[in-house]
Design goal:
The chain has about 375 residues and is of the alpha+beta class. The chain is built from 9 helices and 20 strands. The protein binds adenosine-5'-diphosphate and magnesium ion (MG). The site of adenosine-5'-diphosphate has 11 residues, from strand 2 and helix 1.
Length: about 375
Amino acid sequence: MGSVSIQSLDKIYPAAGKNPAFHAVKGIDLEIQDGEFMVLVGPSGCGKSTTLRMIAGLEDISGGTISIDRSTVNDLLPKDRGIAMVFQNYALYPHMNLFENMAFGLKLARTPKEEVMRRVTDAARILGLEQILDRKPAALSGGQRQRVAVGRAIVRDPKVFLFDEPLSNLDAKMRVSMRSEISKLHSRLKTTMIYVTHDQVEAMTMGDRICVMKDGRIMQVADPLTLYHQPENLFVASFIGSPPMNLLRGRVERREGRLVFVEAAESDAVFVPLAGALAQRAEKNLGHEVVLGLRPEAIYDEARGADTTPLRARVELSELMGSETNVYLKTGAGTVIARLHTERRFAVGEELVVYLALAKAHLFDAKTERVIR
Ligand code: ADP
Ligand code: MG
């Protein structure tokens, strides 16, 4: 069992030398279920590692409580918390073979020899390392070394696994394959895992739920599809998804009896009539500054009846991805990206009309940056 409960957690790094004190984690609350795969994601410096290290007991907390299995662990040493951590820089002992590397922690804890044997052999089998247990780390690939680091965590049979950007040092291909190995490991062990990454693709593909952080605060906690389709604020909207959501700043106005979105621009403003549920949301914000958000896949190259709104645009750049093409379009004040399901090639400078699926649009309050429902 390994639920983790975090309440009003704060971290203030004290001033040191010329560096002033720094408030790195600002009163976060987070409930992680037993067996859940929770990802902490956010840009570099937002407090992910600090949070994870406080859960591990490697960093003092400045305020709040952390509980594992409903008992507070604030004052417990790392070794007594029932956690095991895998870092980005997993230092293996170069003079020890893989078996010894994985067994080392257990031996320190005076685990009986047969038990050490059983646990290391089990972990090696799960990770596909059985054949190479007598090798030294120098004779391993980056991916194999990373698996040994995971193995060292598995043999401890923790209640909670903590991962801090464990794949960052691997090349792109190895990262993708280790990503699915860790996901498989989770479905096999069904142990709680808390996984830190700055990579939103890693977060989306691995997490049961994702906690998006920014500047020491939580911006939203949700499952991947909810984050993608119902972002609570502009930060989440722009952080999750690639290419990112198009965001147009402007104002809701009434023109000749109809509600319209008018982009804030000196000239060439995007101007779109609003209908249906979007118009209802917009109406409450008549005259206010808003941000209209539309994902690249909600822009089509052909009309779909009354469901789409035409918009004139000029091609700035197009990226042929295979089954689809990302087209960067100059329209209004800025550039809008459309992900079109076509293999057609677009010429730079080409004029065309694209069709916006505004029923899929998001509306945000420009000042508070919160979604308008
Ligand atoms: P992340 O893992 O999300 O990239 P960190 O948790 O490592 O971010 O750091 C959060 C913020 O706290 C950063 O601005 C970082 O510079 C600062 N920080 C981290 N460790 C220390 C420290 N030991 N002393 C002072 N500031 C620190
Ligand atoms: Mg970090």
